[in-house]
Each structure stands twice: as structure tokens, then as C-alpha cells.
Amino acid sequence: MVSGAVFVPHGRQPESSIALQKPHDYQREWMATKRNIYLHELYGMEIGADTALCRCGKAALWRCLECIGSAVICAHCLRDAHLLLPFHRVEFWGGTSWRAAWLRTVDVQVHLGHGSTPCPSLRDVSSGPSGCEEAPEGSAPSDEDAEATRFDVHLDDASDMPRVGEEPRYRSTLMMVIVDTSGVHEIPVVFCACPNAHPRDIQLLRMGLYPATWRRPQTAFTFRALDDFLLTNKECKTPAFSYYSRLRRITSESFPHMVPDRYRDLLRLSRQWRNLKARRLAGIGYPDVPVPGPGAFAIKCPACPWPGINMLPNWDSDEDKWPHAASVIMDGNFGAQHMKMKNPEDDVRFADGHGYMVTDEPYKNHLKNACKPKSQKLECNEHRAVIGAASERAPLEATGIGAACCSRHGFFFPHCVVDFQRGEQQKNMDYCLFQVSQFLNGIILLLVLYDVWCFYYKHLLWRFENCPALSLPDNLTITGGVGQFHVHAHRAECYARFSPNFIPGAGQQLIEFIEPNWIETNEVAGSTRGMSTGHRQEFLDDHMNDSNWYKMTRLAVALTRKWEAACSKVGPAMDAFDDLTKNSSPDNVKAWTQAAESAAAERHTDYEAMDIYAVQSVKPVPTQQQIQLELAQAENARRGAQVGAAAWIVSGLKLEELGVAAKARTILPASPIADRLALEQMRGKLLKDIERFHRDSRSYLSGDALRAFLDVHRDGSALGAEWDEDQVSSLGADGPDREDIPGVVERTQLFLPSTLGAGACRTYGMSKLLQAERRLRVGQMNDALHAVRVGIGYKSYLYRTSVRVANSQTKKLRSFDDVQCADAGILSNARVYETARSSLLRLYDPANPEDEEELESTTARFRPLNRSKDLKVNTAIIESTTRGLSHLHLPWFWYLDTGATTADGSWTDEMYRVVWLRGYARKMRWEEEVVLVHVEMIRMQEALERTARVWEGRARGNTEGGYASWADRQAHLWRSLRSHAAGLFERARASHRPQCTSAIISRNLAKYS
């Protein structure tokens, strides 16, 4: 059922036999029971009927491959049935098999000028087939078609060769090459010969045929073929050459090279057709839009705020400004390169600045006159986009593009896509931001997310004041941040200052929408690289517009899902925050609340105000070396203390970290002798160090303790075997597992307190050593976690600066070698962390009340690492284009910045402060999300309704030549979208309500009910 432009399902129940089967079971059943039967039926369709008669009584020797059922009929009936279907593919029974044929053989013609009926001014027209019951004769191609005469082949040799260049049977007909989705046809066309006849190109257009030239048209494309190519190009990214090659193969399976080559015509005409469609969809030619202006062809996001279009009542006087703020995300893409034109003076532009790419001349003037940027020091990880500004590539006119899209819905912004000349320079992105601000003129607050915002914003206002082409609307406040999945590769300070998690009014910015947009753009980068400048601009505009239209048709469903998610998650976020508040003192809660509100108010002018969400590093997280120094100083200060005990324990920890166990697992019997020799030399050195460590232990351990060590069974997993790289076992039956070899040095027992456990240490008077190892293990874990974070951030950096931009297989392989090295470092430090954590837990006795509370705090702070989840760096932190990122959460240790010490010396208090503030921010963002989605639903309906009203006004004011009908058709389309969205939103609000009590939500939902 179709209602307007919306398909309404009838609720058809699936077949039970299919529903109960898995796909592979269904395939097995088909292969066993149906494959041969279906194959037999396909063979049966090749059977002809020499004595078959048509329903009119004549010999039935023809069939149409495109009419349903492919009924066998006579030539007269075939012609009568296809007078208005001249591009169907037909076959003729040749006595032993079916042969390819053409409808022109039965005198099917295309009549122009009189609604497909013959022109009354002509007498020399066909009245029906004559002698067509016989097999059609072959004919040689004319010299007029270069493609057909390229090969010295006689068409009489094979009936399925394309027959082109035939002379028309009647003087009044013209044999034209017509390109349709069904193939390439040569068919007789009869033009109107009346005295007041329109030009031939207009006659073709009115028949749905687009002429290759308007002077003496010999070739035409059906509107259907041009529409199909443009849609296939946008949906499947099929280039024109591949599309036309497909048509040639459809036309002649055996001899596609003999089909007339109209590839260049397709390139030229599809560009014209694309522009005509864009102008018609934009309403160009109506009184209100006589000529297109900047961004006239672009589809705007209906849920974003557009002054004068979809703003809520009294929005400018609302005490809450954030529900009416616009949010964009900017980024550069170095995949969309463009070669310099050999003859730029030959460039023809159909739509300069009418879509998403900026108008060329003003942009070039800006680049020429832009002020020189102030020198800045890169304090975060190196951004290849910024450093690349110094490396110009001579053959390229554009090294990439920069763009902006709305950060909450992913729609490209109109007229803001800029070309890069020497990398992602600030003057390029300044012009992009300038265009965004002009389209949002009237908006009070603009949030800009940019992966180098911490670098970009510092002299932003100075550049806008000193560049003649740049300006910002009055009363516009710009605040910025870094996308959620880029911010983790920045300095630690950037997370609190620029993460969307802490930006007031941002809601839940879980996805960097512009990154998936680049995937689609890069899929056509090969096609656009060598195009003319104007053609490339129109091509990219068309694909970006299609991307926006795709999102438009699904935006109502997306907002419905966001509403359901916000309603379901705001309650748990508030409950978790309430629990944090209950477990904190009222004085602290009051101070923290005031700090959060003050930071939110000051953020627009001072990003450092957000540092309250990070650890106040009075002194850094204690490292193992610092703890060793502190213990050594304490030993020297205490009378009778075991001087050097801390250094002795540290030496044991170092032996444990050597990583020889991991090295051993990568050495196989088939490994080179040099590798195996190196391993044995490492083992020899390790054995000497262990013997020295055990000799020194006599100074710190009693004889009973030493004897107790000999009775302890060594746990192989203590070396972190679960963190080793997966290796394919190649030892075979004759090769024993390395863990089973007795006497392997890396499995030698170390005489550390953690080996005996807390209970035994107290029994043998080792309490001081136990306390020392506890503290040193904490420092060891802090070091290891820091190294893991650095490794993951470095790997993220490698993906962004090396892997993703590698333009050759060699560079890509070299980049992945670096990634593998980073992986090895991450796993090595993860192994150290897990080993230290396991040892630390053995230093506590759960049965001892003194240890119980400290053990609980330790396990809560230092959690186990999960290799498959916590270290899966090819997700959000690495590749933000990965789908499904909105459901991912960063591993716990990314938020473990709670080791710093406050003024009173308790890092535990600082941990609670930061956790409470981040819980507060999480609650606020979900409350904002509920309000923002509610407002976006209203704005979307208003934008669609307004667009429908605009088209209705055009329909009432224009009655000439189909203008009114087209406007009414567009009004119906936009109103259908509006009705569909309204129905979805109404059902969503009825079935899902926020499961919490919040002043922010209640006030704003009541205000905009």
C-alpha cells in the first residue's frame, strides 16, 4: 500500500518454513531439492514452437524478453504491443533456437510531435510489418559509426552481433542511436513535419529523449537511462565508463565492442542532466528564485536551527540559550584530491557555488589576501593535516577538501566545502567556518567541533578581524571542542577542556558524523581526480546532496531512536549521580556543584576553567622510582631498618619484567639459529641476575622464610601468558610445550613477599617488606597503565598520520609494521600490569580485617584488563569511521587520572571529586539530550511544513508550462515527509517518557510542548 510517498506495510506474516530456517539450512535444502528442477525449467524456456500460432492465427515466432511471461506471438501483435515500448529486447525463433532481434525489424518507430502518433503531414510512414514472419536478415554497419567499423567483421557471420548503421526504410525516418537502461538501440525516429513543428531537440525532449546535440541529433539518451546512471553512480559509486560498459554488454553479450560507443556523450549529457535536475529541485525559475545563489541546491538539515525557517517561538528571549544553539563539526579529507587542468581556460562551470563547494573566485581572493597566521607551537600529538601545510604537491590543484556538517545529524553544510592547496591550513578552514556562520546568521551560540580545535582556536578572532574576506555575525558566540574519538590522542589537559562530555549544552555527541561522510566521498575520489574543475565541483555537490537526502529520509526514524535512547538512559545516569552524591559529604557536594556551574559559565571565554574535570595535579601520580626513593629515605631515617630493602625488591620486580617469557614463546624449533642463540644468551644473563638476587635475599629474609619459598608452586600465568601474541603452534608432536620444559630459567621462583602471600609474610616477620612491595607494586601498575595509554594514543596517531594517508602499498605495509611494534609495546605493558596486579592481590589477606578495606579499595581502583575490549584500539580511539561507535565506551583506565594528590595529601579525595564531577557532567549531558531531541523533533516538522508551504505558494502563483504541477508535486512530497515524521514522533512520545524527575527536562518540555 502506498500513501503519498510513504509505503505502509500491511503486516504480512513471514512464511513459517522460512522463518524457522537459518540461511545456510535453506541453501542446503535448495541445493538438494530445487536446484536441478529450476535448471530444468530454465532449459525448457529455450524451447521454440515451429507450429505455434498467435492468438490472431498467424505464426508465433517472436517473443519479448522484458514483457512478463515472454509470450510467443506473431510480428503484427508484437508491433502493436510495442508501439509505446520501443526499447524492449526481443528474440526471433530461427528454426532451431532463439536469436537476438530488434523491434525496428517489425517496423516499430518512434513518432515525435503528436503524442507517439504519426505526423499527419507525413505520408511515407510505416503501417505495419511486411514479411516479418521470416528471420531478419543481417546487414553490415555503416561507415558513419566509427565504433562499428573499427573491426573487420561481417555481421552476417553471427546473428547476435549488433546491427548498426542500417538505412531507414522510409524517407521520412531517421535512424538514431537511443541509449536506454535496456541497452543501446538503433531505431527509426520520425520527426514532426508540420509547419509549426518545434525544433528536433525539443521534440526529442518531449518524448523523454535527451539529445546528444541540439543541431542535428543522431544520438539520444532516455531520461530513464540518465536517471538510472546518476542514481547508480550515487548509490553504487559506479563511474560512467563502467556503467556504459554494462549497457554494451546488455546490448550484445558476445560482441559488446561492436556496440556504438557513446561513453563521452554519457559524460557530457549526464552532467547537463544533473544540473537540470538540481535546478528544478531547487525551484530555479520561479519568481522567488529567478537565479540560484550560494548553496541554493543544497538540502539543509531540518532538525538544526535555521533563523527564519524553523526556530521555536520566542527562542531569542529564552533564558536557556543552549537548546537553540547550532553545532557543527569541521574536518579535512586528503582523499579528495584534484589534478591541475592542462587548459583551465576551457573549464565550464554550470553551478559555481550553488551547492556545497564554495564559489571559486571569492575563495581564491580570500586565499590571496589572507593574513599570515601567527606562529604556534604544536603542543598535542602531531597532526599530519597541520604539518602537511608545508608540503606542496605540484601536479595537484587540490590536495584535499575541508568541510563542515551538523555534528548531531551529519548533514553537510551548504556552501562551505573548500579545497586545500598545501595541506589543511587555517585560512582554508577559516573560510569554511565563515560560510557556516553566514548561513546561521541570527544564531546566538555556535558549537564547533574540530579535531585540532585546541590549536585552531587560539588566534581565531584575530584572523577574522585581520582577513578582509572574513567576518562573524553580530552577537554570535563561538565555543569549540574536539570530537569524542579524537580527543583521546591529545594531551591530558585537552580531554577536560575540549571533550564533548563536558561542553554545556552539547547533549550526547557520540559520533563524529563527518568521518563516515568521508568514506562515501573517497569512494568516488578516483572519478573526480582527473575531472575538470567545474565538473568535479558539480559531481561532489551532487554526491553530498544525495548524502543529505539519504539522511533526510531517515532522520525521523533516527530522532525517534535518539528519543528512546535518551529517555531510557537519563534515568540511570541520574541514579548513578544520586548515589555518588549520597556517598559524599554535603560540604564537598556544595563546593563541587559551585565549581561545575562556574566552569560552565566561564568556558566560552576560558577553556582552562574546565580543568576541574581533570585531576588537580598538585604532584604527579607516584611512579615506582619515586616510591623507591621515598622508601629508601625512610629506611635511612629509621633506626634499625633494613637498609636497601626497597632497592632489593625493585631489582626483583625488574627481573620479573624482563619479558624473557614472551620472547621464549615466539621462538620455535624452526626459528633461525641466531634467534635461538640470542634467547639462550638472554637466559644466561637472567640466570646470573636471579642468582645474585637470591644471594642478596639472605640479608632480608630469615632461614625459615627462605625454606618456605622452596615449597611454593610457581604459577606460570604470573608471567602474563594470557597477554602474549597468539602463535600458531608449529612444534608438532616432537616439540614439547615451552611451559613443560623443566628448568627453564624464566620460570625460576623469585624470593619476593608476594610469592609467599600476606599470611606467610606476617608469620615469618616480613611485614615491613610486605608493605614496601605493596607500595612498589602500585607504582609499577601506575607506570604500566600510563605506558598502555601512551601506546594506544601512539597507535591512534599512527593510524591517522601514516596508515590512513598511505598512498602506496609499500608505505601502507611500512606503516603497519610500526603499528605492530606499537601493539607489542601495549601488550608488553599490559602483561606487566596484570602480573603486578596479581602479585599485589597476594599481598593482602582477605581474612584479615586490617587488609579487607584496603584490598577492596585497591581492587576497585585497579581492575583487570580485558584484551579483547580494553585494548581494542581499532575502534573509537583509532578509527572513528568504524560503524556502531555510539554503543562503545572507553576502557576504565582512560578515566583513571585519580592518582594525583590534593593539598592534604589524599589522592583518594581527589578521585572522589573527579568521579563526582564526571558523573554530574554525564547526567547533565543526558538531560540536555532529552531536551535537544524534543526540540529537534519540533524543528524538523516546522522545516518540512515551511518547505511544503513554499512550494504550495509557487503552485498558486505559476500556471505556465507545468510549473504549477511540479510545485504541487513537490509540496505533496514535503508534506508527506512531514506527516510521516509527525506520526513517528507522536508514537515515540506516547510510548517513551524520561524515567526521572529533572527541573531542566520538565521546564523545557513544558515550554515547548
UniProtKB/TrEMBL annotation:
Domain of life: Eukaryota
Disordered: annotated span: 118-146
Pfam families according to UniProt: CxC2, KDZ
CxC2-like cysteine cluster KDZ transposase-associated domain boundaries: 174-252
Signal peptide: none
PANTHER family documented for this protein: CXC1-LIKE CYSTEINE CLUSTER ASSOCIATED WITH KDZ TRANSPOSASES DOMAIN-CONTAINING PROTEIN, CXC2 DOMAIN-CONTAINING PROTEIN
Protein name: CxC2-like cysteine cluster KDZ transposase-associated domain-containing protein
Organism, scientific name: Lentinus brumalis
